[in-house]
Amino acid sequence: MKIVEKCRWAVMAQKWTQTIRIWWGQYTAYRINFFLQVIGPVLVFFFVKFSLWTEIYKGMGATPENPITIGGFTLDGMLQYHGWILVFSMLTQGNANFDLSTDIRLGKISTYLIYPFNFWEYHTAGFLAFQTLEWPVAFFTGSVLTIFNVIHCPSVLTLMGLLMLAMFISVLQFALQFLSGLVAFWLEETWVLRVLLNITTTFLSGAVIPLDLFPEALRAVLAYSPFPYMVYYPVKVAMGQLSLEPQVFLILTAWTLVFAALNVLVWRRGLRLYTGAGM
Amino acid sequence: MMEYVIESQNLSKTFRSYEKNPGLRGAIRSLWHRPYKESHAVDDFNLQVKSGEMIALLGPNGAGKTTIMKMWTGIIVPSSGQVQVIGHDPWKRDKQFRKKIALVMGQKSQLWWDIPALDSFLLLQKYYEIPDNEFKQRLDMLSTILQVQDKLKIHVRKLSLGERMKLELLASFLHSPDIIFLDEPTIGLDLVAQENIRNFLLDYHRQHQCTIVVTSHYMADVEALCKRLILIIGGTKHFDGPIEQFTQILGKNKIVTFNFSQAIDHTLDLWSDFEPTWNEMRTQVALRVPMEKLKDVTVQILNQFPVSEFSTEKLPIERVMKKILENPSLTKWGQPSS
Amino acid sequence: MMNQIKIYLAIYKKFLDCAFSRATTFRTSFFLIVIMDLFFYASVLGSVDFIFQHVPSIGGWNRDQFLFFLSFMLAIDNLHMSFLSENFWIFALDLRSGVLDYVFIRPVSSIFLIFFRSIRVSTMLNTPLVMYFLIHFGTQAGLHAFDFLLLPFLLIISLLIMVEIEIIISTLMFWLIEGNGINFLRMQLQNVARWPDFVYGQWAKRFFTLFCPVLLIGTPSVRFIFNKADYFPLLLEFLAMIALYILMTKFWFYGLRKYESASS
Question: What ipTM did this prediction achieve?
């Protein structure tokens, strides 16, 4: 009985590994594309913010001898904030372009209904494959930023905690993006929902400007949403301005479970519609 | 009026395809080292086509027929050689040139997917600057012949493949082109739809005497439509001439089919000269018999074996094609072996 | 010449007809796009507004001036999204599938057929809102009637430069085949252009003004509106529009020659 169990796990592991390999192949088939779609946007985002804040502080007359603060940030602090956002985006953004909606619209779901490896497994393997490609890039970027003194390396313990936090955040992001893709059962153009989600998350998580600069009322409302925990909170921990609280993991897990449950619900309804309409 | 509407000399096209080893290692290695293969899709192709001819480019997948057609229509630029179509260099894409040609690709649609076909036609009217009354006249005529009058206002994506194909043809004929290029026009269609398309093309050609170039790997298309056949294998021309001559490449042979009232010994030496094709029960055999031996062989078998039925027919083109693909030197460039 | 213009106008009218026909077919997407745009405007204007709660000026521009500039860029974005944007994405797909073959045999400019074909009607619903932002922040920033009269022309010139740059970049797809990365590059350049040139360091500013002139898209026009003596960048913008047009047509010609067409 035990041997049979071991064999079953071995077979499962093989399926997952092979699927992840296929995803690697797909992601790296067009190298320039991978760079432009995945890495380029976050780099440009950082570049624009770096330029903007440098100009703002310069305009205010900030010098190393006379550091001005805006919203509690010095120029160094602000650049550090955005530097950490760059690293965190690479760790957590997920494959923002993965379009499981194409699978739905083109009727490829039928294949997954027949395969002994189902739809969510296939796309989760895709998520894992993507993360394994992104993490080395994030580490490299983090190292470069540290060398140029934009960010400062936190303690090993904090770093481990942050990496774990990054994993939780990326799973939450994946659940959100998966949900936005599933509406393809009803919508022709799902990219709209994904972009909408992206704009909202980017703005409300403090990735554009720190939440410290937001009006107090808005910050109070946001505390009840998962957004601050997706960017603002981990970056502040990395900067040593906030401590890593265990309950954050619980909050992220709770939100992930909420969206995962929604995913299951939407998938079931969508599948009923899909198979009802015929393959 | 020029004699030849298509003149190709030493026409060649080479494509580069990059290789990549599978797996992550291969993917990472490919970041700095990308070996490539060059494939000669078309190699030193010569052809002249007269005005009003209807010719077929025949060949297996990857033979280069579509690539040739795309060079003739100016879609892709030749790697080397010369080509003139209706007196123009196709790849220069002169407006006057583009007004005189039409292209239909069986595997790709030119109609816009989520609007009715009529909207697509009205757009094409604007592109080709067709005057209103002429447009209306041609639309009525073509839609009547193709029996699609009631399909014009339906969204294209809601139509069947056969109906869509008819509308594709309609779209291409609206501007009365001098040359029409059809790339696998009947692919994926059922037999009735295929026959409808062929009949339409034959009638149209008879009435308008335009030049039609068809590529296909359906023999039925070729046999029904074209008197002149150009066989292309591996990007080179292997045959150019009348279809009758093509079938005689393997000599003047006939297929003779015998049905027997009992199982026959298929191992006898007698059968081996005639490429026998037996059924499972060994009660039926199809033989390839040269014309001059037909009478003797038939009589011999009728005398020796309990034949319940027999029939003869011309060697089908499929068989000729299959033989040539197995052994391209059979053609010896247009000289039938006897 | 007049005949040609008439023909192209007639074709464009048909494109509009088809766009309206499509818009009424996909109604949910229609409204979602409107909402998406609204969220986008809110996040752009909101971010800068929040910054101005803490700083009095950026690069010599006060809050109203900066928000007017952003409104100008959002207006260009609105026009771009309505009349052009979708075509760049479709181009990437069509290039891969081989459907472009038909475009290249039509007796009409392929650039026109490819980049002007698809029109997004839903985004036009937000045009009044964007115009309102322009007028509101323009008035707050002290614009006169003459400045408002100039606005449409300046918007068109800026839009044309943006389109020319984007078509030049998109032409690279003929060599790269897998085109979506190029579309993301385009969007990143739009992000860079969305901020005035003075926020960038001198090397970045030089690069994005002279080499990849996305900073000529909005800043020269707005700077001229605020200060009529500052006309040199606007002159540069006008010259760039002409130079880019020539470059675009030449580069497109080479792209067409490179086109290999998906096999059947």
Answer: 0.89
